[in-house]
Amino acid sequence: MRAAVYKGPRHLEVEDVPTPRPGPGQVLVKVKYCAVCGSDVHRFQHGIMVEGAIMGHEYCGVIAELGEGVGRWRVGDRVVGGGGEPPPNTLPHPSLLPRFSYRTYSLTPQPPGAYAEYVLMDAWRPLPIPEGVPDEAACLTEPCSVAVRAVRLSGIRLGDRVAVIGAGPIGLFCLQAAKAAGAGTVAVSEPVALRREAAASLGADHVLDPGSVAAVDEMVRLTAGLGPDVVFETAGIGPTLQQALEMARRDGLVVAAGVSWNPVPVSSADWFGREVAMKAIYGSVPQEWRHSLQLMKEGKVQVGPMLTGKAFVPLDGIQQAFEDLLEPKGEIQVLIVP
Q: Is residue 285 part of a domain?
């Protein structure tokens, strides 16, 4: 089979590699789409990945082959590449990392990913794709589940005023999940015009350009001088975490969902006195994958406005797609098509 193999910083090569064969309790999935995650771009950019690895964890496909003892699945079943219930006696939130850094974790060997024609999985891992959920939405179940987790753990109450900093895929999913959870208003701050347009089309009540207005002052103004009840920080760059902490209301909450690979300056003097809380979000649990698929099925979460420009890229174009995503201009979400 053909796969995109990581060769070092900013270097992917498409090669012929052996097609895996399922052992007992495993399934082989023929990949339909594999979305490019921001964390993959970070690893590509900073060289934080084991050389020879195949990345890609946001994907969907069909069951192509069954290993011995697999009775749940049939060849041809449409599945999402994750979200299944783990075996008994495993961690309740298997995505959480042990006590070492995300950077260190990225340099440990990982199972082959789905920037390839086929991917091998334990049979408990996939989730079935519901009727009515298209493949291009299903392959984004994983990032959607992160947003669903962020919203669930934020404790949003009916009518709450919400801010989202960053309108990349996670931010746009947070916008929609917050609306589905009963947020009264959602305001989005995003410097890229294309992403602001997507936020508006997906239901944002207010969309602002932080390059044209002071984001903190504008978010406070939009909430009658109080500040948002909940702020989702999904950009993970520069001053955005500080902005989130400054704009949150007294006793408000900042949910940090954007991962930064560099130090982020934060000055507590500007928000400490309001007793603002902060919650970090990483990964998700199976029920949040199922919630995501249900929201997609009900039309409460949509992905169409995210698939702009050259959203669908053949495997041979993956190197250029990653280069383009270092400074995105015409794309919000890219789907690799093996």
A: no
What's the rounded Cα separation, in Å, for the pair 338 and 332? 20
Question: Could you report how far apart the first and last alpha carbons of the chain are, in Å?
Answer: 10
Coil, strand or helix at 302: coil
39: annotated active-site residue: yes
Tell me the C-alpha to C-alpha distance, in Å, between residue 323 and each of 78, 139, 320: 31, 22, 5
Tens digit of pLDDT for each residue in 180-218?
Answer: 999 999 999 999 999 999 999 999 999 999 999 999 999
Residue 42: active-site member: yes
Length of the chain: 338
**Cβ 16 vs Cβ 106: under 8 Å:** no
For residue 149, the SS3 value is helix
Q: Exactly one of 11, 42, 101, 201 is catalytic; name it.
A: 42
106, two tokens: 């990225």
pTM: 0.94
108 and 223 in a common domain = no
**Token couple for 309:** 């420009």
**Where in the sequence is the domain holding 78, given as residue range(s)?**
2-140+303-337
Which is the catalytic residue, given 39, 95, 201, 260? 39
324: CATH: 3.90.180.10
In this structure, are 12 and 133 located in the same domain?
A: yes
Residues 6+ apart with CB under 8 A from 196: 167, 188, 190, 207, 209
